[in-house]
Amino acid sequence: MMDALGILATASVWAATLRIATPLIFGTLGTLLCERSGVLNLGIEGIMTIGAMVGWLTVYRSGDLWLGLFAAALIGALFGLIHAVFTVSLGLSQHVTGLGITLFASSLAYYTFRLAVPMAASPPTIVPFQPWRVPLLSDIPFLGEAIFVQAAPTYVAIILTVIVGYVLVYTPLGTAIRMTGENPHAVEAQGLNPIRIRIWSVVAGSALMGMGGAFLTIAVFNSFFPTMVQGRGWICTALVVFASWKPWKALLGAILFGLFDAYQLRLQQVVAGAIPSQIFLMIPYVLSIAALVVSTQRARVPQALMQPFRRGEH
Amino acid sequence: MRLERRVDISMALVVAAPLAAIASALIIAGFLIALAGADPFKAYKLLVVSAFGSRLSITETLVRATPLIFTGLAAAVAFRARIWNIGAEGQLYAGALASAAVGHSAVAMFPAPLAITLVILIGAAAGAILLIGPVFLRIRTGADEVVTTLLLNFITFLFVSMMIEGPLRDPDALGWPQSFAVDSSITLPLLVSRSRLHVGLLLAFVVALAVWFVQARTVFGLQVRAAGLNPEAARFAGISLPRSLLVVAGLSGGLAGLAGTIEVLGVRGYVTTDMSPGWGYSGIIVAMLGGLHPLGVIASAIFVALVFVGSNGMSRALNIPSYIADVIVSVSLLTMLLSLLFTNYRIRR
Fold first, then answer.
1. Does residue B12 register a pLDDT over 90?
2. Interface test with B, best of A41, A50, A229, A293 (most B CBs within 10 A)
3. What whole-number distance in Å separates Cα of residue B140 and Cα of residue B232?
4. Domains and CATH numbers, chain B
5. CA–CA min distance B185, chain A (Å)
6. Could you give the 3-state DSSP secondary structure of residue B189?
7. SS3 (DSSP) at B326
8. Is the CB of A296 less than 8 angstroms away from the CB of B143?
9. ipTM metric
């Protein structure tokens, strides 16, 4: 029992927490941006998958890690654009389109991966992002090792959360995006174009999802393999509800989630053999469902979420 | 330029929609085949030959279509009532596991026909429970069933993996863990000798007809359709929304559970974790291509099976990744959405 609690007192569990949370921070932030403008994006799972593949492949070919992250954002934005054209411009079902994007993006990722990298006994690898020691801050006892020795994209994710949060809450652009998610007709009455706002929000949000996927292949692992996203996209969709569509709560939710996961990974080693490993692997999904059930009723849903906007139609 | 809703939609248009969707998906995937250095026309010809060219390949395509009819019906039934059941994959595994669990001991207690019926019902019930739960949660707490059913897929899968590595593991099986086999007296008889095609296909046809009958000819079917089209009006007409949602959830989850059960009883005899290559998710595509109509589902399930079985042979012959099958069917889901837009609306200047 001492061991089980002692885990929390090690710096490594907190360092792992942020590493595990990073893809979720990207994904949750991306989902939040889409949904705040009124568009559900179930394409996330596939966008993360193709982001993971394209990010990895770019690094594999060029050796440039940052270029890989950028390429993943770009491919994410592209699939976001497809989603936006279908659901916003054409007003098609957000549920079915999103699932279609997920199925299409992931199968395209697997197909192009196999084209680019022939079958081999052990998959080719890259040199991923290494933990970067933030000058000065990483020298703080315990806290330094726990928080300030991370792969660089983790800091990017946190900074982006602050930026997106600030833009959404304190700028006219953010007000326009939030209003589009609440009442697009009011936005139009203000002389703004709700369709354009939604399209750009989905594109930007999807770029973030792509980066979240890439973090898996170019920072956590060093290779790409099918089904590696493992439902992280769906977990992000649940986390946004848990966060009541608020950016700082989304960050908190993702980190909390990372903590549970980092904790269970270590607990698994402590109680090795006594409990089947599958029980531990189930925990993230069970937690997500629990979070959804507990928080849905008190969450503040964007009022126009999933309602297509057509000019002159109320 | 704007869209104008069509007043009446002709039958020809309804049939043309999926055909146009499939044609455009094949064109898009054709570019990807060309990218792999193969001739798309030759590839598609090989695809059709691999799926329909011989007695064996025809039966294999129909074997593959059988679970797809069930998962397609599961999605179609749910979507019509505006229940977003994305959990067919988990429900399928639940059905498979439940029937394997009871299938090797049920026979000792009951005569074979009764045992088969019992095993099938238990498999369907296992699938049903996995959807009734999320729909109940949606009614009570508002938790979106899209996300809960998706997450349940992962939980169920891990549960199956735990069971077949633990209490249900067949100790005599070599290699990857697999469950106990069901007793040979309750496996489904073959439909065609020297093939794997079993009577499960006929069962799938019968179930599709039954679903169509319930939807088109019964009061319950009408109530569900009304509830799906306009929940407010349905409530006003005295239809209990929660009750009809839960019944549809049981039906849809049960159909997906049957996909797993029938696969175990008809083809495999036991459960492994690589049993379904995503049939639950493909069911969504089958349902959409079939226009959410039970008979349309049969046709589109055969098409999707054709693509998967055909791509197997085609990709091996031309040395291109077999994932091309997943690309073709997923693109056809997206193009089907566009097709539906043009069947429901016309473009006006």
1. no
2. A293
3. 18
4. 2-348 (1.10.3470)
5. 33
6. coil
7. helix
8. yes
9. 0.94
pLDDT along chain A (314 residues), means of 10: 68 90 97 97 98 97 96 98 97 95 98 89 89 86 84 96 96 96 93 96 98 97 92 95 94 93 84 84 91 88 88 66
Chain B, nearest residue to A108 by Cα = B327
Please state, as a whole number, how many other Cβ atoms lie within 10 Å of the Cβ of residue A185: 15
* Residue pair A39/A201 in contact by the 8 Å Cβ criterion: yes
Handedness of CA A124, B278, B257, B200 (dihedral sign): negative
> Which of the 8 DSSP states describes residue A98?
H
Contact B334 A297 (CB under 8 A): no
Architecture label for domain A2-117+152-295: Orthogonal Bundle (1.10)
Contact A114 B321 (CB under 8 A): yes
Count of CB atoms situated within 10 Å of the CB of A117: 16
Q: List all residues of chain B from 149 to 208 with a beta carbon under 8 Å from chain A.
A: 150-155, 158-159, 161-162, 165-166
For residue B168, give the nearest of B257, B102, B91 by alpha carbon: B102
C-alpha closest to that of A310 among A214, A195, A220, A200: A195
Q: How far apart are CA B253 and CA B324, in angstroms?
A: 29
Nearest CB partner across the interface for B288, out of A96, A106, A278: A96
CA B140, CA B153: separation in Å to the nearest integer?
Answer: 21
Task: Please choose, from the candidates B332, B293, B297, the residue with its C-alpha nearest in 3D space to the C-alpha of residue B214.
Answer: B293
Name the residue ranges covered by the structural domains of chain A. 2-117+152-295
List residues of A whose CB lies inside 8 A of any B CB: 42, 82, 86, 90, 92-93, 95-97, 99-101, 103-104, 106-108, 110-111, 114-115, 230-231, 234-235, 237-238, 241, 276, 278-279, 281-282, 285-286, 288-289, 292-293, 296-297
* pLDDT value at residue A81: 98
Contact residues on chain A for B340, CB-CB shorter than 8 A: 92
Taking the Cβ of residue B345 and every Cβ of chain A, the question of whether any pair is shorter than 8 Å is answered with: no
Q: How close does chain A come to B182, measured CA to CA in Å?
A: 24
